[in-house]
Design goal:
The protein is an alpha/beta fold. The chain has helices at residues 19-28, 45-53, 56-61, 104-120, 139-148, 168-184, 202-225, and strands spanning 3-5, 11-16, 34-39, 70-75, 77-79, 82-83, 89-93, 125-132, 155-160, 188-193. The longest helix has 24 residues, at 202-225. The radius of gyration is 17 Å and the shape is globular. Bound molecules: guanosine-5'-diphosphate.
Length: 227
Amino acid sequence: MNYQIRPQSTDFKLGIAELSQLETWLNDNPAAIGIAVVGRSNVGKSSIINALFGKSVARVSKTPGRTREVNIFTFNLNQNGKLSDLPPFFLIDLPGYGHAEVSKEMSRKWNDLIGTFFELISPGILLANLQDARHPNQAVDQQFYDFLNNYTNSSILIFNKIDKLKTQKERAQLEKLKPILSKAYKSIRQMYFASAETKQGLPQVESALIAHLLEQVEIQKHERENL
Ligand code: GDP
């Protein structure tokens, strides 16, 4: 059972900017399985997605006008180097938070969109929150987790740009933050150190993602059998 994300297999499905459209998609896909990625702007979300899935995804999400949308893609897994017979999974690129220049109107829109997303999203979607390893747990990251506390979703936290931590002391500080964050934010299931630049830590993130996907496939199979 040797699964990997199939390189360059992502397929852009739709970009959603309107609440009603998001509600429709979420209601139509109650059993979606996949991953949703969110983080402060400039944290390296596009770079991590590129490194894990291939370049075409971030190109779409960075198109002017799409940066504020919920961008939905599908992707496949390979099994032993060949396309697996599992159905496609979802990759959901959520609009970033903590932009320097946002109007009240825009942040209200983000809250509405993301609130609805977490309220209605399938339990089969794993949330991955990205933070900057050099500047972890910023005020906007804390606000995001406080916001997430209103919902039941579990998440993984990926500290990106780990290559920028040059000293042992900086690494030790980040290590020390882990238990503090898991205590403060119940939704965090696991934390990873990674670098989109050096690819360090990405195999662990990929394994965690694949384990989640396969687990959800099994859960849904059991649910269908028990109907
Ligand atoms: P996004 O706004 O969150 O999608 O961030 P981007 O992927 O566009 O990255 C923002 C900046 O951070 C770019 O200049 C990237 O080259 C840089 N960056 C992203 N990931 C890493 C990383 O792991 N290490 C380093 N050193 N730089 C990174």
